[in-house]
Amino acid sequence: MNLSLIEKERRRMVRAKKLKQNWEGYLYIGPWVLGFLLLQAWPMLYSFYLSFTDYSLFAEPNWVGLQNYKNIFTIDFTFEKSLKATFKFVLMSVPVKMIFALLVAMMLNKAVRGMSLYRTLVYLPSLLGGSVAVSVVWRNIFGLEGYVNTILNLLGIDSVPWLASTTWSMPTLVLLNVWQFGSSMIIFLAGLKQIPKSLYESACVDGAGPIRRFFNITLPMLSPVIFFNLINSMIGAFQQFNSAFLVSSGGPAHSTYVYALMLYEKAFTSYQMGYAAALAWILLVIIAGFTAVNFIASKYWVFYDS
Amino acid sequence: MSVIAREKGKRINYRKILNHLLLILMSFVMVYPILWWFFASFKTTAEMSSRDLLPQTWSIANYINGWHVTENLSFGTFFRNSLTVSGICVLGAVFSAGLVAYGFGRLNFKFKKIWFSILLVTMMLPGQVTIISQYIMYNKLKLIDTYVPLTIGHILGGGAFFIFLLVQFVRGIPRELDEAAKIDGASTWRIYWNVIFPLMRPSFVTVAIYAFIWSWDDFQGQMLYLNSAPKFTVSLGLRMFIDQAEIRWGELLAMSLLSIIPSLLIFFLNQKEFVEGVATTGLKG
Fold first, then answer.
1. Which of A34, A186, A283 is facing B128, going by the closest CB pair?
2. Looking at the structure, do residues B268 and B168 belong to the same domain, yes or no?
3. Cβ neighbours, 10 Å, residue A93
4. What's the pTM value of the predicted model, to 2 decimals?
5. ipTM
6. For residues B162 and B97, what is the distance between their CA atoms, to the nearest angstrom?
7. Residue numbers of the domain that contains B45
8. How far apart (Å, rounded) are the C-alpha atoms in residues A260 and A24?
9. I want to staple A35 with a disulfide (CB 3.0 to 4.6 A). Which of A181, B157, B196, B206 is the partner?
């Protein structure tokens, strides 16, 4: 009897302690929880609701059912153009950027002397990121009378109407994106340093050449890092906005009218908030779909040690 | 035997030289546009599309005229505004993300795992699904054309990337340190403020660097939420040039160059933390 009382008291104290712990834990993560609910969870749900309405910011939302989605898929010709431009951007910039980043990382990994200087120089463009300043420079040097054409003329090549042609406008933006491969490169470099040297040594003893070493050691050992970079750059590329807005303004003839730009114009230029919310949800589904496919495919090519 | 070894040594040397040559070429190509940009900002309009890298006559007119972009507005105002926004973001991120990271890294509470998974998922959430509702919310609260929408996210937790980075760091701090303080009867707050917070300094440097550069470079948010010119940031000041009928390229390039100086300074002064930040969490620079 007495024992069980003590036991009860002990349990009550444990519970009280736990309660205090809970309460305290939430106090610390509170700022983030509040931010999450206020700036992410609720806005997400609200935009989902808005996507079934007609809303212009100046009147109350008006329920229209699936009309927005229907219009997007059947009437809106810019949607198709925008999807094309976005996929083109993703499919061109992501692989090229990754290959570049990996090649440079491997070169840097070999160069012991001067490594940090090279790394600094190569990383410099990435530091400036998607800032307005860099877009300005790009727009200038790829202008009709810009520096790139001046150099081409010097080499006896005719001027290319970079930003004024539907063929070249997208590659110009892709080039700007590829120029900023620094972050991926640094992540690759960190990954390369993790690969045990002994693997290469024993492969050398077995007579494996550099190409075999690359495909049989470097690539599999680096595959988790490649996967990480792939997901990261892909999600970023789908949301590309600044360069398309500032360098080419989506043109010419919608050739660089990427998804985020279309969404921005629909929402904040023509104030079709409901319609833009529907576009946003379609983008979310596309990105989630691509990410899921990548995760499933990763089972077949990503090699996890242990 | 020694001949073979020497031969091999030589071959490796050639390879090394080739590697360095390629790297030098690569660095040159990467930096060339920035060099051109630097020199072009000292050129006159007539010289702008010249094939020479260096200006014939050096002129700082672009800097003087560009600084006073309109009659009553100068880049001094824009720099001050940008510094205000970035300053709030840095302080907000360091203090609030630090608290949250301590909560996730050290304390136990119900549903902790679920909350942490949510945190990780939000890292991949495209901003497009929230931006429209956020704008509507700020509009209803009459917060458009203030710095609140640009800084509130940093004050409320600072974003998933920063929290994640700091949690990793908190987990690496030996538990004996806080156990000792706990035995002495210190509250969780005392433990955080007197033990953990000072130890987290290096990771706070990384957070501060990125919070600064990201908010400094932000364009879409600033364009969306600020609409009166005296409140404009440097990014928006630069955009004023683009919106004009005839772009004054020289002035634009000069002011663009000034706009990247804070980021460059921070990068060169903190290279180690910078590179580590990218390498350990995949933060985009």
1. A283
2. yes
3. 25
4. 0.88
5. 0.88
6. 6
7. 2-63
8. 40
9. B157
